[in-house]
Amino acid sequence: MTLNLFAADEEAALLQQQAGTREALAPGAVLLRGFALDGAPALLQAVDGIAAHAPFRHLETPGGQRMSVAMTNSGPLGWISDRSGYRYGRADPLSGRPWPPLPAVFATLARTAAEAAGFAGFAPDACLINRYAPGARLSLHQDKDERDHGHPIVSVSLGLPAVFLFGGDARADKAQRIPLVHGDVVVWGGPARLRYHGVMPLAEAEHPLTGACRINLTFRKAG
Ligand code: MD3
Ligand code: FE
């Protein structure tokens, strides 16, 4: 176990050194290593501000399972799941109030990352914020609750590293494993937009900025 933990630290350190590089994962999918590194403290501070008004919570799937990932939202639209299904809504069901507004640092990061990946003019109206504690995972799924799949999704990884699963157009297609570390940004558009994807159970570790957790921001044009 100790050896494994050292190996994980070493891999994360090597990946952090790739900050500033870009990698085409597939047609329409671009990994921008470290794109959010300089902005990360401000992004995390904004997450705290959002969570003070719309706390992280474990949503229930339509099948009645409690999700291991804790979620909240910012922006005019927020993604929710409950016994009646998955959807975007303007109000936080916990408070009945609108979701906290999209902070300027969020909107700017999403727009500049999308532009760097070839999607100029991206103006998200929803940011789903996922919080992973050790053991939390996201099983393979597609993101298709948004109205127009012509818009990309921009994802930002903060805190602990994770192994991302990048599958194909069918659930049974073999998935690539892509390690994502603090500050990495991935833009998913074009033919990659409806690919199956997920996140492996988070390994136990500590990050200097987030402690024992990983935060993922996904920016969407949902409405
Ligand atoms: C590939 N979140 O919130 S972000 C999600 O790390 C979600 O929390 C994961 O999947 C996370 O829906 C992965 C990467 C991601 C997001 C959207 C995609 C990859 C995608 C849409 C299409 C293809
Ligand atoms: Fe997703």
From TrEMBL:
<feature type="binding site">
    <location>
        <position position="143"/>
    </location>
    <ligand>
        <name>Fe cation</name>
    </ligand>
</feature>
<dbReference type="InterPro" id="IPR027450">
    <property type="entry name" value="AlkB-like"/>
</dbReference>
<dbReference type="InterPro" id="IPR005123">
    <property type="entry name" value="Oxoglu/Fe-dep_dioxygenase_dom"/>
</dbReference>
<feature type="binding site">
    <location>
        <begin position="86"/>
        <end position="88"/>
    </location>
    <ligand>
        <name>substrate</name>
    </ligand>
</feature>
<feature type="binding site">
    <location>
        <begin position="130"/>
        <end position="132"/>
    </location>
    <ligand>
        <name>2-oxoglutarate</name>
    </ligand>
</feature>
<keyword id="KW-0808">Transferase</keyword>
<dbReference type="GO" id="GO:0008198">
    <property type="term" value="F:ferrous iron binding"/>
</dbReference>
<feature type="binding site">
    <location>
        <position position="197"/>
    </location>
    <ligand>
        <name>Fe cation</name>
    </ligand>
</feature>
<keyword id="KW-0408">Iron</keyword>
<keyword id="KW-0560">Oxidoreductase</keyword>
<dbReference type="GO" id="GO:0005737">
    <property type="term" value="C:cytoplasm"/>
</dbReference>
<dbReference type="InterPro" id="IPR004574">
    <property type="entry name" value="Alkb"/>
</dbReference>
<protein>
    <submittedName>
        <fullName>Alkylated DNA repair protein (DNA oxidative demethylase)</fullName>
        <ecNumber>1.14.11.33</ecNumber>
    </submittedName>
</protein>
<keyword id="KW-0223">Dioxygenase</keyword>
<dbReference type="GO" id="GO:0035515">
    <property type="term" value="F:oxidative RNA demethylase activity"/>
</dbReference>
<dbReference type="GO" id="GO:0008168">
    <property type="term" value="F:methyltransferase activity"/>
</dbReference>
<feature type="binding site">
    <location>
        <position position="141"/>
    </location>
    <ligand>
        <name>Fe cation</name>
    </ligand>
</feature>
<feature type="binding site">
    <location>
        <position position="171"/>
    </location>
    <ligand>
        <name>substrate</name>
    </ligand>
</feature>
<feature type="binding site">
    <location>
        <position position="145"/>
    </location>
    <ligand>
        <name>substrate</name>
    </ligand>
</feature>
<keyword id="KW-0489">Methyltransferase</keyword>
<dbReference type="GO" id="GO:0032259">
    <property type="term" value="P:methylation"/>
</dbReference>
<feature type="binding site">
    <location>
        <position position="79"/>
    </location>
    <ligand>
        <name>substrate</name>
    </ligand>
</feature>
<feature type="domain" description="Fe2OG dioxygenase">
    <location>
        <begin position="123"/>
        <end position="223"/>
    </location>
</feature>
<dbReference type="InterPro" id="IPR037151">
    <property type="entry name" value="AlkB-like_sf"/>
</dbReference>
<dbReference type="Pfam" id="PF13532">
    <property type="entry name" value="2OG-FeII_Oxy_2"/>
</dbReference>
<feature type="binding site">
    <location>
        <begin position="214"/>
        <end position="220"/>
    </location>
    <ligand>
        <name>2-oxoglutarate</name>
    </ligand>
</feature>
<dbReference type="GO" id="GO:0035516">
    <property type="term" value="F:broad specificity oxidative DNA demethylase activity"/>
</dbReference>
<dbReference type="GO" id="GO:0035513">
    <property type="term" value="P:oxidative RNA demethylation"/>
</dbReference>
<keyword id="KW-0479">Metal-binding</keyword>
